[in-house]
Design goal:
- By secondary structure, the protein is mainly β.
- The N and C termini lie far apart (40 Å).
- It has strands at 3-7, 10-12, 18-25, 34-39, 46-51, 58-60, 68-73, 78-83, 92-100, 103-106, 110-114.
- The strands form two sheets. Strands 2, 4, 5, 6, 9, 10 and 11 form a seven-stranded mixed β-sheet that branches.
- The protein is globular.
């Protein structure tokens, strides 16, 4: 059974940092690209970043380039999203996702709130 569990969200002031984690189980972790998405209230889900199987290829939404870094530790079956210089517009529920056997799987999400 595919399972993704996000953690690390919270309340942070503008300019602050957070590190999100996504712990994966139930599938061949090293064989899959992992994505981070976010969804703000009243908005559609937005792709934030993805990382390839080996961890040496990444891509980012323009809105987070230079501020967010995605990484993975295949030995721990975990993907991270390091978020620096957070802004109010980064407030959202953040989800990690994987496509397995032709279907999208998501975790329950972790809330990130950027506010002073």
């Amino acid at each position: 059974q595919v399972q993704l569990v996000e953690s690390g969200g919270g309340l942070v002031q503008p300019g602050g940092s957070l590190r999100l984690s996504c712990a994966a189980s139930g599938f061949a972790f090293t064989s899959h690209v992992i994505t981070w998405y976010r969804q703000a209230p009243g908005k559609e889900r937005e792709l934030v970043a993805w990382i390839n199987r080996a961890g040496d290829g990444t891509n980012y939404a323009d809105s987070v380039k230079g501020r967010f870094t995605i990484s993975r530790d295949n030995s721990k079956r975990t993907v991270f999203l390091h978020m620096n210089n957070l802004q109010r517009e980064d407030t959202a529920v953040y989800y990690c996702g994987v496509v397995w056997s032709g279907r999208d799987y998501w975790g329950q999400g972790t809330q990130v709130t950027v506010s002073s």
